[in-house]
Amino acid sequence: MERLTGPKLGLVSAVFVLGLMAGCGKQSSDEYIQEAKQYLAEDNSAAAIVALKNAVKTAPKSAQARYELGRVYVIQKQYESAEKELNRALEYGFEASKVLPLLTQAYQNTGAYSALSKIEHEQAGLTSVEKAEIGYFKVVSLARLDNVTEAKLLIEDLRSLDTRSVYKGLTAAYSLVLDSDFENALVAVSALKDESPQNAEVLKLLAQLHLASNQPKEAADVFKDYVQFYPEDSQTTFVLAKLLVDIGEMSAAEPYVDSLLKINKQHGLLNQLKAAISTSKENYSDALKHAEIAISNGVDELSLRLIAGYAAYQEQDFTGANRHLSYIAGALPNNHPGLKLLAASQLQLGLTTDLGGVLSRLDKLTEQDAPLFSKASYELIKGGYEKDAEILIEKTGGISRTAEDLTRLGLLQLSLDNLDGIVNLEQAVAKAPELDSAQLTLAKAYIVTAQYDKALDLANSWKQTAVDDARPYLLAGDVYVKLENFKAAKSEFSKAKELSNGGAIPKLALINLELLQGNLDLANDMLDAVLQEYPTDVTALATFYLISKQQGNQAAGLEKIKSTFDKNQTNIGLRLLLARVWLVEQRYSEVITLLDELGEKESLPKEYWATLGRSLIRDNQRQGATQHYDRWLAFAPNDKDAVIGKLFLLDSQNKFAEGAKLTQSFLVNRDDVQMQILDTHFLLMKSDFEAAQKSYDKLPAEVLEEPMSKGFLARFQLSRNELEPALVNAEIAYDATQNSRNLLLVIHILDLLEHADKSLLFLEEHLEEKPNDLVARMLFAERQIGGDIGAAMVTYKKALEQNPNNYIANNNLAYLYLKQGEIDIAKQFAEKAAELNPDSVETLDTLAQIYVADQDYEEALELYSRVVTDDLKNEEIYLNYVETLLVSGDAFLAKRKIEQREMKLQESLDRVQALITEYGIE
Fold first, then answer.
1. Comparing C-alpha atoms, which of 397, 392, 394 is closest to residue 375?
2. Got the DSSP string for 119-176?
3. How many CB atoms are closer than 10 A to CB 202?
4. Does residue 486 have a pLDDT over 80?
5. Separation CA 77–CA 232 (nearest Å)
6. Are 709 and 703 within 8 A, CB to CB?
7. Residue 474's pLDDT is what?
8. Which residues are within 8 A (CB) of 661 and not within 5 positions of it... i.e. 6 or more apart?
């Protein structure tokens, strides 16, 4: 056995000694109580609580220890803990008369009204003052529990108390409160305040009576006194702060709110109050910060969202303003100022689609609203929402008074082809002749509407008010050009040229004047001089190209633009001019490369989007074109050019349902004859004749007489089996526009009339006129297969000359060569077709049949393994596969495949029977 060494023995001894010391130092419960009293005398409540907890731990059923701990908890305002300890003190037999006053305070502050209502206020040992206090709190508790009858009985009982305690007075006053006699209650409690100005219950009841009497300012004054005496009561401090905000005393409320925010920075209601205060002080950044803290902490009030939206708008945070105001827009009444703020924010953000709905809810308007409505109308028109814009413009008409407002209104009306705009512009010019924008807009309106006399009068009067301005002379010159009075036009343009602010415009006007009169050489010389002075002027360079083209030297014009751009590649105007010229020259890939360098940014001008889109289509880059138009439509859904470009692509892909959906979404926002025509077309092509008829009926009478509309009518008649009149109208449409779609319509009707010879002849005549119509040539070849295989093969070869990547022509030629037994040639065409369209079951079937003919069954079966799936509906191809299995010697699998598929077509059933017989399948 290991013996104990010296150090180990020393350790054991030390522990033993420490244990004896600990045992000797253990305190009793009473000693801890005395220690706690000493701490309280030293104003160290925290240490006192620790000592009293030790006393309770030492003697858990010590009534004295429980009472003392409960009493300290009351002093520290830890009322829930006090409630627990004081109840234990009663349970363990402590003197009730000492516990009950403290327990009453605890219950009152924890809201334990039911427990408080049951306290025995007549307990022996209680003084009259204590009975009065406990009795008052019992009355209040019974009232809050809606036990008014018992409360009144208690009040009568308490009247007999022999005491001058303020609580006896409060109880008497509360009797008036229960009878809703707030006026006399207010008088009674005010008198008590004079006697006991610092009593908490007096001050609270007095403040509540002022509120009940609709005297919020007086209530706030009383609450101020209370908070001064009881600053630790944060709940009442909050009530005071909110009351001050409600009555508009923001500066008085702010110190209270700030003191409470130091306790809890994330408190939702406090941040709401701070947001309101900051808004009143025009500190919008601070207001927005606190409003958003309040919202994030669960305060979801309309007033708070209004503050947040308003503050965000003032901070030019239009995204935030839109977010907050949109959230409550549905709850705001019509004509609420918040709706105007919301509309203004949406304008700043370009959220055109939301504007009409918001502004339509405003009808109580003033002159100050005219700019907002004008700008909104402009954005709606710009975004293609013309119907919404018309509603706003009508409202704007009633509030436009100033020359600026009338100018905007007139311009908007004219943009919607409303000639009332001219009247408003005339009023604007009359009100402010010096207003250039009104003069210019009215001048353009006069010219567009051919009111040339008025335009000249305007130009002459404008000259009087703007003697050094070139624009009235340019206006007069433009009018004379319209009147073909070139001499007078030259005089006006020459005067404009002499004025300093004319720039290149009057010089170019003089050049165009010479071009109109056929003076190409003189115009060219004049243009050289202009380009010397203004080498990057886009209009001058475009004019140079046109002159060069007329002179048969368009290469020189193109080179001039290209060389100028090369020196100024950051000039977007020059880049777009070069792109337009290359587009005219059919140099599509160069246009695409040139414009791709800009990237597809929304901020780029419309000319960029239109030019690049047309180039992608004409270069047959359908996928790139689709992506381009989709991006364009994403931010400009009602741009007509974008919509038409997309519709062209959908039409070429036979996606008629998508096309109809797009036309209809456009027509919801604006009336447009061209789009109505396209809508009718797409609906007809998707065979929705009922909807197409409704769309067709909306077309103007003059449009219905057009050959295109006759084509529509032919399709309606065809749907009703009215073949003879359908043929007449289809031929009218074809004669006007000899495209593939009109051709196919005529051919289809002829086929239904069983005019096969006429159909074939019609195709031949069409191909003589349109030898590059690949659709017609493929159809012609298909018709030839039934009668003249050699001729059909020649036709397919011509089709391949036009487009070597035509997989159908390759496949059909392979099939025809196979029929003639020329397997090697057939294989070349079939492999090409499969390479071009590896997912086509028909193409793979043709190649497999060629392998079968060449007795290469393994290759054939490998192809059929890709083709024959559960989704394969073609019974002929399925049986080709079965027969390939049979000829390759796999009768077992062939039999199983026959059993797995139920044939629907009679010819398939006959073929199955023939295969069973030929190969002896049991």
1. 392
2. S-TT-TT--HHHHHHHHHHHHHHHHHTT-HHHHHHHHHHHTT-----HHHHHHHHHHH
3. 25
4. yes
5. 10
6. yes
7. 87
8. none
CB burial class (10 A; 0-12, 13-18, 19+) of residue 422?
buried
Which burial class, exposed, middle or buried, applies to 785 when counting CB atoms under 10 A from its CB (0-12, 13-18, 19+)?
Answer: middle
- Secondary structure letter of residue 417 according to DSSP: T
CA nearest 275: which of 259, 290, 257?
290
Helix (H) or strand (E) holding 245: helix 234-246
Query: ∠ at Cα 910 (909, 916), nearest 5°?
Result: 90
pLDDT of residue 322: 86
Cα–Cα–Cα angle for 502, 508, 512, nearest 5°? Answer: 140
- Residue 861 makes CB contacts below 8 A (sequence gap 6+) with 848, 881, 884, 885, 888
> Average pLDDT, stretch 584-602?
91
Name residue, tokens 């069954």.
857
Structure token digits, residue 604: 């780029």
Question: How far is the first Cα of the chain from the last one, in angstroms, to the nearest whole number?
Answer: 97
Residue 138 has pLDDT above 50, yes or no: yes
Residue with token string 């006006």: 492
Mean pLDDT of the chain: 85
Q: Give one DSSP letter per residue of 764-819, joined into a string.
A: HHHHHH-TT-HHHHHHHHHHHHTT-HHHHHHHHHHHHHH-TT-HHHHHHHHHHHHH
pLDDT tens-place string over residues 743-758 = 999 999 999 999 988 9
Neighbours of 853 (CB within 10 A): 14
**Residue closest to 353 by CA, chosen among 118, 633, 154:** 633
Residue 257: pLDDT band with limits 50, 70, 90:
very high
Q: Rounded to the nearest 5°, which phi and psi values hold at 678?
A: -65, -35
Q: What is the pLDDT of residues 660-673, one digit of tens each?
A: 999 999 888 777 88
Convert 517-566 into a string of H (helix), E (strand) and C (coil): CCCHHHHHHHHHHHHHHCCCCHHHHHHHHHHHHHCCCHHHHHHHHHHHHH
Is there a contact between 778 and 800 (Cβ–Cβ < 8 Å)? no
* CA torsion angle 522 528 534 539 (round to 10): 60
* Mean pLDDT on 578-584: 94
Interaxial angle between packed helices 622-635 and 606-618, expressed in degrees from 0 to 180 and rounded to the nearest 10: 160
Return the number of other C-beta atoms located less than 10 Å from residue 23's C-beta: 8
Residue 871 tokens, joined = 């989704």
In which band, very low, low, confident or very high, does the pLDDT at 515 lie, cut at 50, 70 and 90?
Answer: confident
- State residue 786's pLDDT score: 75
pLDDT per position as a tens digit, 299-341 = 888 888 888 888 887 888 888 888 888 888 888 888 777 777 7
Angle between helices 723-736 and 707-719 (to 10 degrees): 150
Separation CA 451–CA 594 (nearest Å): 43
